[in-house]
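Re: that chain you flagged

S.,

Sorry for the slow reply, it's been a week of failed gels. I finally had a moment to sit down with the sequence you sent. For the record, here it is as I used it:
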Amino acid sequence: MRVKILIADDHSVVRDGLGMILGSQNDMNVVGEAMDGRDALAKSEALRPDVIIMDIAMPELNGIEATRQISESLPAVKVIILSMHHTQEHIFRALQAGAWGYLLKESAGSEVVKAVRAVMKGQHYLGKGVDAPRITDRPEHDDDRKSPLDRLSQREREVLQLVVEGKASTEIAVILSLSPKSVETYRSRLMLKLGVTNIPSLVKFSLLHGITPL
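Prediction finished late last night. Pasting the structure tokens below so you have them in one place:
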């Protein structure tokens, strides 16, 4: 049986390139494409792929948050993250969210087939230039691995991304099925938790942590 693959990336050239590589394999079938994290959630529910190739930085909902939600609702799906970031925080957050693989975009073309085959065997796959997160058993070092984003709830992280992408509270309310007042409450709460007092600082924080595309 051929592996069903969904490709989620906001750049059509990346989707097309990966689609050609994966589609040329006799044991793989690209069943769909998604343009952002929310589209990936919807397509994963509709298509039930075996593997999702997921860009880490996408508008509206980034790859890590999309991975977290897909892993909870469809635990059998194996997500492989594509990223320009190779920091310990990004890798740890991706694996913590449920990703089975992590590839740097610069080498994804040559490694993506290997990664798909590895995760289908139940193996985690870290691509070239990706170091496994440093894990310690000593509880006093737990905070060393935590991201400031861990202070936020899932909903607060969703609101954070939409705010820094310039969407008004009324727009966010529609996207997340909330009231504008609730959106304002989430925004105030997340800014307080992060110790950020203005939107430019919030944007800088989001770019630093890979929450939204540049």
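What I noticed first: The domain at 148-208 is CATH 1.10.10.10 (Arc Repressor Mutant, subunit A).

Talk soon,
D.
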